[in-house]
Design brief:
alpha+beta, 2 domains, 16% strand, 7 helices, 202 residues
């Protein structure tokens, strides 16, 4: 999550729910124990330590120890700090989990922006679940089409072109690979024009 509600996190911890989230710079803490770093540091782990929250209100909300992991993100040239309540995972696993979490966020961002699932058509629980699952299946199918296409589609363009050609009888694979190439039956029909010569009169 992109927020820190330590009261909620403590309730999760008591229910044996593991979490990984970014540590805000405004959160004060004190270091308790420095943990060993991975030998083959493929994830660029800089710090792996056990901490306690230092401020009274945050400590009262979460009185247990937390684990703080810092890594260097080479791709974006920045340092990221995570906290988790899991002390058995490797630091590399924690970093990889956060990466996967970010991909989930991107997926749902695309879901809302491309498929306009910002409001629900139905009002009961079943209707809402049907709309959500339909949108999820649709987005996965679109991503599959984008992945198998030779043409470098942007997702927004692919969706827009599919809407425009929804009732056109063409080969989907051919259209995905060559969207601006006329279908074969158009080319065949155009050959009828060759029967007429310029200058012919009736």
């Amino acid at each position: 999550m992109a927020y820190e509600d330590f009261k909620m996190l403590y309730a999760w911890d008591k229910d044996d729910i593991d979490f990984v989230l970014l540590l805000k710079k405004s959160i004060n803490y004190k270091s308790i124990l420095e943990r060993d770093l991975p030998e083959q540091n493929e994830q660029n782990i800089l710090i792996d330590e056990e901490i306690e929250l230092a401020e009274e209100n945050t400590y009262n909300n979460y009185p247990k120890k937390l684990r703080r992991i810092t890594l260097f993100d080479e791709k974006n040239n920045r340092t990221l700090e995570f906290i988790t309540n899991n002390f058995s995972w490797t630091a590399t696993t924690v970093a990889e989990l956060y990466k996967q979490r970010w991909q989930i966020e991107i997926f749902f961002k695309e879901l809302k922006s491309h498929l306009k699932i910002k409001s629900f058509i139905g009002t009961n629980e079943n209707a809402m679940f049907i709309q959500i699952w339909t949108a999820l299946i649709t987005l996965l199918l679109l991503k599959h089409l984008k992945g198998i296409a030779d043409y470098p589609w942007a997702m927004s363009n692919l969706i827009a072109f599919l809407r425009m050609n929804l009732f056109v009888k063409i080969s989907l694979s051919q259209w995905l690979n060559e969207p601006f190439h006329p279908p074969d039956f158009y080319i065949t029909k155009s050959e009828q024009l060759s029967l007429l010569k310029i200058g012919d009169t009736f």
